[in-house]
Amino acid sequence: MRRLSLPRADFTASLVVFLVALPLCVGVAVASGVPAELGLITGIVGGLVAGALPGSSLHVSGPAAGLTVLVYEAVQRYGVGALGVLVLAAGLMQLAMGALRLGRWFRAISVAVVQGMLAGIGLVLVTGQVYAMADAVAPAGGVAKIAGLPGLLFSGSARPEALALGVGAVLVLVLWPKWLGVARVAGWVRVARVVRVVRVVPAPLVAVGLASGVTALLELPVRRVEVQGLLDAVQPPDAASFVRLAEFGAVGTVLAFALIASAESLFSATAVDRLHNGPRTDYDKELMAQGAGNAVCGVLGALPMTAVIVRSAANVRAGGRTKASRVLHGVWLLVFAAAVPAALGVIPVAALAGILVHAGWKLIPVRELVPLWREHRGEAVVLAVTTGAIVATNLFEGVLVGLLLAVAKTAWDTSHVHVETEDLGAEEGLRVRVLGNATFLRLPKLMDALEALPHDRPVQLDLGGLRHVDHACTAALEGWAERRRGPRAGHAGAGGDAASGDGEDDGVASALVA
Known about the structure:
Layout lengths: L7 H24 L4 H13 L12 E2 L5 H11 L4 H17 L11 H23 L8 H13 L5 H16 L3 H8 L2 H10 L4 H16 L11 H4 L5 H5 L4 H26 L9 H18 L5 E2 L1 H9 L6 H16 L9 H15 L2 H10 L1 H16 L2 H20 L2 E7 L6 E9 L4 H9 L7 E4 L3 E4 L1 H15 L6 E3 H4 L7 H8 L1
Parallel strand pairs: 4-5, 4-6, 5-7
Antiparallel strand pairs: 1-2, 3-4
Helix pairs in contact: 1-2, 1-10, 1-15, 1-16, 1-17, 2-14, 2-16, 3-13, 4-13, 4-14, 5-6, 5-17, 5-19, 5-20, 7-10, 7-17, 8-9, 13-14, 13-15, 18-19, 19-20, 21-22, 22-24
C-alpha cells in the first residue's frame, strides 16, 4: 500500500500562516465588538471547512479586516446573538450564487468601486482603531470619528501607556520586514544572518508578543483582551434571531455580507493566482467554499469569513503547495484555542488596534491615486465618491452609491454621438450623418446639432452609422423629421426608406435599426 505523506513545505507553511492568522483573528474580533474567541472560531472554520473544499488550493480564509466595519455596525444594531443568523443567511446566499455559476461575474465589478470600497473601509477602520490604541471610546459614525481625532490627541483623554503600545506595534509592523535590507546595506553580515532567520516570525506576532511582554513586565494599566473560553463564546442562533431576517435593515446587512465577502474573496483569489504557477482558481467552486464556511460560522455564531490576501500571500511565500497547508493552519488555531485560551488575556487591546491601523492603512490605495487621476479622472472620481459615501453613511449604502456612479460613468463614456454634415449642392441640399451611440445622455447634444441646421435647404439624414439608439432618441429623431417635413414634405429624410418622406411612423425607426 502506498503511504500518504504530508509535504514538508506544506507543514512549514501551515505554521507560518497560523502565526500570521492568530493575532489577526483576535484583533478583528475585538475591533468588531465580539469576544476574541469568535475570531478564532472563524479562522478554524476557514481552515478546516473552506480550506478542505475545492476552489483554490492556496487561498486561506478567516475573519478579515475588510468586514470589520460592517460587522461592528451589525452587532451594535442587532446584538451579538443575531450575528450568527446574518452570517448563516449570507453563507447560504453565497452557496446559491456559486451553484448558479455567478462567481465569474464578480470580475465585472468596476475596479474603482472596489478600490473605493477598500479605501472607505480602511479609512473608517484606521480612525476607529486609533481610539482603541488610546484605550478610549470611539464615537459612532465615520465622520464623527474623523472629527474627534484632534480632541482625542490633544484633550488628554488618551491613555499614554496604551497609545505608546499601539504606536510601537505599528512601528514593528513597518520596520520588521526592512531590517534585513538595513543590515545588508550597513554591511552587518552576522546581523543579516540572524535577521534572515528571525524574520521568518511574522511581524504581527512579533508586535503582539513584544507588547504583551512589556505590559506584563511593567504591569501597565491598559485594557487587555477579555477571555471567555472557546465553548462559552459559541452562540448558535435561536428562533428569535431568525425573526430578525424579516427586517429590511437585516436583509441589507445579509446582502452586504454576501456580496462584499464574495467580492473580496474572489478579488484576492485573482491576486494570489499571480503569485504561483499552480492550478488556477475555479471562481464558482471557491464561492461555494466560502458559502459553506460562512454557513458553518453562522451556525456557531461566529464572524463572517473571507479569503484574504495577507494570509494567502504568506502561505505562497512560505512554500505552500497544496490545500494541506491551509487546512493545517486551522488545526493549529484549534489546538491553540483549546489548549491555551488564557494566553489571550495577556494581550493588550492597543497592540491589536495598532495591527488593524496598519492593515487599514494598507487598504487605502495612496500610491495609485495620483496616476489614476492623471490617466483616468472619471475612475478617480468614482473611487473618491465611493470612499466618501462609505465614511459618511455606511458600507452597504456607500458601495451602492459607487456602483450607481460607475454605471452612470460607463453609460456616459459609451454614449458618443458625432454629427457630420456634407453639402451636396443647391438642389440636393445637405447630407447629415449621425455616428456612434445615441442614448438619452447625449440627446441634448444631438438635438442641438440638428436644430442648428439651416431651415431653407433640404436635409438627408443618414443614421446608418449609429451602433445603438435608445427609445428616447428614436422618438426625438422622428419628431425632428416630422417638424422638418412640415408643409414642405420631402425636404427632410432619414436615410434609405425614410428619405421618401411618406409620413409613416416606421420610416425613421427602420433607419434607426439599420
